[in-house]
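Technical note accompanying the year-one report. For the benefit of new consortium partners, we illustrate the data format agreed upon in the data management plan: each record pairs a sequence with a structure-token string. No post-processing was applied to the example shown here.
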Amino acid sequence: MSRMRTKFVAGACFAGVAGLLAMGAVVLGACISSLHAGPDGRADGASGDSGSADSPVVDAISGDSGEPGDGGNAACAAYAAAECTFLARCEPGVLQVDHGTEAKCVQHITAACEFNVTAPGTGVTASYLAACTPTLTTKANACASGPVPLAVPSLSDPCNLVGAGMPGAPCGFDVQCQTGLCVLTGGVCGTCAPAAALGEVCGPTIPCANGLVCSSKNGLCATPVPVSASCDFDVTTVCVAGANCVSADAGATSGTCLAAGAKVGMACNTKSVGAPPCSSLAGFFCDPTGQCAAISYVPTGATCGVSGDGGVDSVCTNFDECLSGKCTAPIATGASCAVGGEPTCAGVSVCVAGDGGAPAVCTAPGLDCMAASSFPFQPSNVAMADVTSRQGKAKAEDVAGPCTVKTDTSSPNTDCFTSPIVVVTQPDGSRANLVVVESLRVEAAGAIRATGSVPLILVSLGDVTIVGSIDAHSTDLAYGPGGAQPAASGAKGLGTGGGPAASASATVGGGGGSYCGLGGAGGGATQQGKSYGAADNRPLAGGASGGGGTVGSGAGGGAVQIVAAGTLTVQAGGAVTVGGQGGPSGGAAPDQNGGGGGSGGAILLEGSSVVMGGTLAANGGGGGGGANGKDATASATAASGGGGNANAAAGGAGGAAATVSGGPGSPGSGTGINTINAGGGGGGAGWVRINTSSGTPTVTGAISPSAAGCSSTGQVRAAGTSP
């Protein structure tokens, strides 16, 4: 088994050297599983010799444990000394595997403690260290004459570590979570895991609630029991760390918890029949003669594994891994690595795949991750894990000129940002593209043109200021991100609110696409599309296209969400637009009717505070008539329909401002060579939403549509809630 990212809090355990140490039971809020594989390949500690009271403070225990905090935290130094004394006396095998020497242990744990006290929401506080340090000393004193099994975990133990993060909250370290486990999601950051109750499934990413342990036999949360208590071989009870369930008969389903062998020459049995196994926590294994022998701990480059005669085990020390029979040091932070490969990264570093085919690199969490972990609210539509996993590559962005963003379900691209653009999944299963930046400023000459097949979400870990424009409207062959593409000739519009198709035989124009506002009916028709979507723009989706006339229809407007952890400002003269495309003219020949205009799209602004002095526009496109209908613009002015002439009636105007529904196309008339073709209906307006911490943004600019319902405000979602 390869070494996993070290965790010393609820639900996660040390995974030992390949072929020698195996994952075991979780004990209380902290443990190291160091089951020792015997010559028969079965873990000696099949029962309770698996947990440890090792440091719940430490997320890193190697020399590459991260930068120390202030370099002089006396409380951390005292804690480290007490913790390492406990390991030296009670779990010397763990001390050897994780640190090598007691001096290195103190160095590693002090550095890690100083780092962890700086994490937002950390459980490693001054009061925690003051209470836990003497408790560790008391536990160490109980082992003055040699290792002894631990006591049954107590919920009142001062060393129980509880961070501030609720299940689902963003995190970079275990110490930030109430359950003591931060599950990484493809990078150096992740979310706090929920805790499992008695009898529920548990494992490396699912911790048991405090006071319970995870059975290595069936993967269910079980009750810990002390030495001399009855046990059932990890089915519903697990012996405390340093003890094993033992029975006189092979195949028995019940037994008694006995202390694992912790001295050379003690009788042992790897299958817990008649005698317990030896304690790997204490540094022993059961040799072929049935007696406990000392494990041999060897340095980098040394031969490791079971010797040829099966008599002595050689285990790597200082967190090396036994690979191909040699102790191999973990990969240093910043060096190339293989995701899921071996050796693994040192300390808390994680092998993170590069963007665009770049090599994977061992990456350590830092203050950027912590900043993302403390994002003040939950952005809509995007999991916080998707945000935190990108924060390490987020940059301060200043857009000073024209640039483009092209969204896609597999290969999005942009020349607007140095921060990467990635594909994410919204809660409803639909896709979007996400760009996470440190901050964003769009200068007066800055013009971000966004097109593509899926919505665009921009998330800033700081502020956003828009002086220029973010343009996601649809026009000919350049469709706004996530907007429905034009309908084919004589076909219904695409999207839930797609406009009804034109009919050549009945001289009926294509209906406008609907979204918040209804699309206007095509000339000569009474049927319209249907309004859909939600005021909060969850999920984020583009607009619908109009019904196809003789040469098609207008595309729906795009969808853009902009999120700022701080203040989001759209200055006077700045604009965000997601308007629909105008419907095409039908033609001069008889029965060539106009196409419907596309509906407006969706705009969602979220920030701790929002100041909107510019323009937000999600207007519908005009219907096709004697000429093409106009595309919607970044204003509160409705897009006009194509004007009428001797061969074609006028198209309807797009929805805008207080008139959210598109105007109807003018009906055609006559027959044969005297036919006047019907105009297409205008597209309905889309949705605009602004969410802030207070629920009340500062608005002095223009928002179109302006009608209540299609344009609304609300409060951002609380941190730790669903997106």
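Partners are asked to follow this layout when depositing records. The first strand starts at residue 21 and ends at 22.
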